[in-house]
Amino acid sequence: MAHTAHKQPNYIGVFWWLLALTIAEVGVIFMPMARVLIAILLVGMALTKASLVAMYFMHLKFERTTLGLIAVTPLLLCVLLVFALLPDHSATPHQTGAAPAPTAPPRSR
Amino acid sequence: MSQVAALHADVVEPAESPLTPESWGKLGMWIFLAADAMSFGALLAGYGALRYGSADWPIPSHVLGIGLTAFMTFLLICSSVTMVLALASIQREDMAGVRKFLALTILGGLMFLGMQAYEWSHLIHEGLGLTGNPWGASLFGTTFFIITGFHGAHVTGGVIYLSCYLIRSLLGRLQPRHVNQIEIVALYWHFVDLVWILVFTFVYLL
Fold first, then answer.
1. Please, how many CA atoms are within 13 Å of residue A55, restricted to the half-sphere of its CB?
2. Are A48 and B200 a contacting pair, CB within 8 Å?
3. pTM of the entire structure?
4. Tell me, what CATH number does B84's domain have?
5. Whether A67 and B53 lie within 8 Å, measured CB to CB
6. Residue ranges of domains in chain A
7. Total beta-carbon pairs less than 8 A apart between chain A and chain B
8. pLDDT tens across A45-93, in order?
9. Mean residue pLDDT across chain B
10. ipTM of the shown complex
11. Domain span at residue B107?
């Protein structure tokens, strides 16, 4: 029944950080800056909050490294997934240059 | 080590989980959470692809209630704190503390679900649905309800899961030796909070 002996993390301290980051996240969307910069800040803050919850509340910081690798693998796979979907992002219909549709009027030259 | 164990087969010792020696269940929960993270990741990646390729996607902060959902985020964060305090209570064998903090965590989850239901009914009343969106691309409504609904289902499951332990504790059937089980349910609850942090960022704020 032993668990890795370590000093109990400062849970309330982590809570204050999470609260501060949440307030900052909501605040940042109203800032007069480029949407790309807002997006980068939001993603950065979200990942920081997620890491705090994972490391301290879920005790990943005090577990074996391999468990951390299992936990972080979905993040890597999802990033790959986003890149795999990139060709579909600009979902505009393609003009292939083939023969026009049968219902189209004949072209006059 | 398994060969040594085979040589001493007359002495049967339970095998230790390779990464989490104190509990196989903990490893099982981590692996389940990794798989569940893929489900949410697939939904969010798909959401990103659909939104990026759409011409008339509404700006979420203009049509969704950011104040309410920011408070919901705060609520789930608080419930994660009470969950970790419940675990700390059972680790120091304070069973009354376990009951108190389990109850507070469940309360946080129920309040979150109530607010989610309120938000949903408000949006449905304005015409947002799985197939309709008064503010633009209909996929906005589809992705919104599927993603928040999938997460809400996880919260509901977590509330039921936690309630089982609260009931067991109230019946006097939860003992300090069950610390691993509380640790496992805590992992699930923190995961639900973690996913909401990401959903809040990508669906509501971005």
1. 12
2. no
3. 0.87
4. 1.20.120.80
5. no
6. 11-83
7. 122
8. 999 999 999 999 999 999 999 999 999 999 999 999 999 988 877 655 4
9. 92
10. 0.86
11. 24-205
